[in-house]
Design goal:
Blueprint: H1 2-28, H2 46-58, H3 61-64, E1 78-79, E2 86-87, H4 104-113, H5 128-131, H6 136-147, H7 168-178, H8 192-204, H9 208-211, E3 228-229, E4 236-237, H10 253-262, H11 273-281, H12 288-299, H13 316-329, H14 331-334, H15 352-355, H16 360-368, E5 370-371, E6 383-384, H17 393-404, H18 416-424
Antiparallel strand pairs: 1-2, 3-4, 5-6
Helix pairs in contact: 1-7, 2-6, 4-6, 8-12, 10-12, 13-17, 17-18
The chain binds heme C (3 copies).
Length: 428
């Protein structure tokens, strides 16, 4: 008798808890406050449209919302997440398939609260945790610009998220745990330029969408740049807090501005892979004032060294094989001592890609080769051939081990197992 009553009490308690949790999740998903739009009902001015076009470029909206070879902003590109792909939708003002019927308030709710027009919760594959920081005026300018595009009829594609990640319930729980529709709060102890740089880097340019460290559910902070792995591709967006990784505190301000505008600078570095796309789609469009603001913010980021794993046991035979492979395949361009050729081939001696804690990006670059982004300041970059079909996994480990321990480097050997594990993270 009393056993049954206890069971009943526990069941009631659990039901109350579940209800309470559901109410909390609902509440945390409805913290919307919408500052009034400053735009009247008059047609948008050319200045507003131009401002919107500028913001759309810096935010790289087209980078995701354009299918390869497809019409700009008409959607259809798959965005990889650890839980399956989400397709970026059509942002052109087509009435049936795009944002044709949208109001400024609908658009604000999408950017600021991550909600679709029908109230549907959106996947954070759309970096709205960053865009939430946008001001209402900037959101309105973006909307006016997108509404001025030629409508393209292109239906949206359903996501390929796996169960349970494809449910609204799991998004609601995720949001309750990790998302608040914050606005950007300027730091009164810092100057206007630093604050502008913070607004751009944390918000519109969404650097932390890649550079933040994410937990198992894919959540990371907007002001955290301590290094993140990109879903699917195997690229690491290294820490901007550590000058031995991707931190730029020790670059000259001019070199950093040049790198953000052109993807490479005289001696230091050239952007690779997804970062090259960011330079091409986003930062190269920054005007002088915003470029300086972003540079100032990045150089003032707090320094936090990345933890390095214990170095593996040195393997002299592997390094010797690497030395021979280097002479055979690489030295013609990068030089016997890794010194490179000014203006054509980057030095590998002292390169952070070579010495950073994880060898993942180094292996990717060797396998895929590549071109630095072609920009106005760097119109015809030299290319590097891919070595994926030329070198097997053991040779890759040997070459990477040699590079990481030559010319004064002490970055530790790369084992065959590391190469195999790093490859298994890629799905493309
Ligand atoms: C990293 C890729 C990425 C970037 C960059 C990006 N988006 Fe998106 N966006 C997405 C994805 C993916 C979705 C779909 C989310 C979903 O369906 O759950 C989306 C959804 C949207 C929606 C909701 C549309 C609808 O039909 O519900 C709007 C509005 C939007 N994005 C605007 C923008 C704007 C404006 C920018 C630039 C400031 C931008 N996006 C940049 C990936 C991106
Ligand atoms: C789409 C993902 C992505 C976004 C968004 C992104 N990055 Fe990166 N970033 C990467 C990857 C991957 C690398 C490593 C490849 C490389 O070194 O170029 C990288 C490298 C870097 C480096 C190191 C450069 C070097 O050669 O040492 C800097 C600095 C950097 N990013 C700054 C930024 C800033 C500033 C932003 C925002 C404006 C940003 N990133 C946005 C993915 C991203
Ligand atoms: C035909 C000339 C050529 C050959 C051969 C070549 N590279 Fe490159 N390498 C380049 C060029 C050009 C770049 C810059 C391309 C870019 O920025 O995407 C580059 C970039 C790199 C980088 C990135 C450096 C940095 O700091 O950004 C690494 C690492 C690298 N190469 C390693 C190798 C290795 C290892 C080999 C031999 C297996 C090799 N390369 C063979 C031309 C070459």
């Amino acid at each position: 008798m009393s056993g049954r009553r206890t069971a009943l009490r526990i069941a009631l308690l659990l039901a109350a808890l579940a209800l309470g949790l559901a109410a909390l999740v609902w509440r945390l998903n409805h913290l919307d406050e919408a500052p009034a739009s400053t735009e009247g009902t008059a047609p948008p001015t050319p200045a507003l449209l131009e401002r919107g076009a500028y913001l759309a470029r810096v935010g790289n909206c087209a980078g995701c919302h354009t299918a390869r070879g497809g019409p700009p902003y008409a959607g259809g590109r798959a965005i990889a997440t650890p839980f399956g792909a989400v397709f970026a939708p059509n942002l052109t003002p087509d009435a049936a398939t795009g944002l044709g019927g949208w109001s400024r308030a609908d658009f604000w709710a999408a950017l600021h609260n991550g909600r679709g027009r029908d109230g549907r919760l959106l996947s954070p594959a759309f970096p709205y945790p960053n865009y939430a920081l946008l001001s209402r005026a900037d959101a309105d300018a973006l909307f006016a610009y997108l509404q001025s595009l030629t409508p393209v009829a292109q239906p949206n594609l359903p996501s390929q998220l796996r169960f349970p990640y494809n449910t609204q319930l799991s998004l609601a729980v995720w949001r309750a745990l990790y998302f608040r529709p914050a606005v950007f709060e300027p730091d009164a102890r810092r100057g206007a330029e630093w604050n502008r740089g913070a607004y751009l880097s944390q918000g519109l340019a969404h650097c932390s969408a890649c550079h933040a460290t994410r937990n198992g559910l894919g959540a990371g902070g907007t002001a955290d740049f301590s290094g993140g792995l990109l879903a699917g591709s195997g690229w690491l967006a290294p820490s901007l807090h550590d000058p031995a990784e991707a931190g730029v505190m020790d670059w000259s301000p001019a070199a950093l501005r040049q790198w953000l505008a052109h993807g490479s600078n005289a001696a230091l570095a050239s952007a690779q892979g997804p970062m090259a796309e960011v330079i091409l789609g986003s930062t190269r469009h920054l005007n002088e004032a915003d470029l300086a603001a972003m540079a100032q913010y990045l150089q003032a980021l707090p320094r936090r060294p990345v933890e390095r794993p214990e170095p593996a046991e040195p393997q002299p035979l592997l390094r010797e094989l690497g030395r021979r492979l280097y002479g055979e395949h690489c030295a013609a361009c990068h030089g016997q001592q890794g010194e490179g050729v000014a203006g054509a081939y980057p030095p590998l001696a002292g390169s952070r890609v070579v010495t950073m804690a994880s060898p993942g990006n180094l292996l990717l670059i060797i396998q895929r080769g590549g071109f630095a982004p072609a920009t106005a300041g760097h119109p015809r970059p030299f290319g590097m051939p891919p070595f994926a079909g030329v070198l097997d996994d053991r040779q890759l480990a040997a070459l990477a081990s040699y590079l990481r321990n030559s010319w004064g480097h002490q970055a530790g050997d790369v084992r065959l197992l590391d190469v195999v594990q790093l490859k298994s993270r890629r799905i493309d």
